[in-house]
Write a structure and sequence with these properties.
The protein has about 190 residues and is α+β, with helices and mostly antiparallel strands. The chain has one domain. About 55% of the residues lie in helices and about 20% in strands. It has a 4-stranded antiparallel β-sheet with strand order 1-2-3-4. Strand 2 and strand 3 form a beta hairpin. It is elongated, with a radius of gyration of 21 Å.
């Protein structure tokens, strides 16, 4: 009789450990499916919007500041100072309007920041890579299939035993530090 209890407790513990370890994979796959289907309600429950917005603001502020400093046309412009003063307010409004269920769904479907809809006649496939960063942090890397460069990282955090929420969108480093595109190499 005692051996039966030990086996039952061991089996219950094994099921709990398996569910605990697999919970981010299940949650993130559900998040991706909701994004692909445009299920705004499910996305609202899967995203900590204030945390994502707060994290994106310094990323974009640093990126825009770096680009402004590197662009010779902006450096010599007398209105650049005014732009630098207004930039935080403009970025705040832009982030608030983009970090929405629809905006996050578009990011997940496109696998990149920027224009989310595929061009006419092109098939768009996004590669998703899942991995634990720590016991309570999980990373979803999005990259358009065949695209070069760094992926967009969506960082999820455990909330409770089995629930996960998106708390950070880490934009590709290349999109944050590259200077303005060189018009001579754009193929125009």
């Amino acid at each position: 009789m005692r051996k039966g209890w030990i086996i039952a407790i061991g089996a219950a513990f094994a099921v709990f450990a398996l569910a605990y370890g697999a919970s981010p994979f299940v949650a993130v796959r559900g998040f991706v499916a909701a994004a692909k289907q445009g299920d705004a309600e499910k996305l609202r429950g899967s995203v900590d919007f204030p945390a994502v917005r707060a994290d994106l603001k310094p990323q974009l502020t640093a990126a825009v500041t770096t680009r402004m400093e590197r662009d010779p046309q902006i450096r010599g412009n007398p209105f650049a100072g005014l732009g630098a003063i207004l930039m935080p307010s403009i970025l705040d409004r832009m982030i608030d309007s983009v970090v929405t269920p629809d905006g996050i769904a578009a990011l997940v479907r496109a696998g990149k920041v920027g224009r989310a809809e595929p061009e006419a006649g092109s098939s768009q496939r996004v590669d998703y890579d899942f991995r634990y960063i720590a016991l309570n942090r999980f990373d979803l890397a999005l990259r358009r299939h065949g695209a070069a460069g760094d992926p967009v990282h969506l960082l999820f955090e455990r909330r409770g035993l089995f629930a996960w929420k998106l708390v950070r969108i880490a934009l590709p480093q290349s999109s944050l530090t590259d200077g303005p595109p060189d018009s001579s190499s754009s193929g125009a």
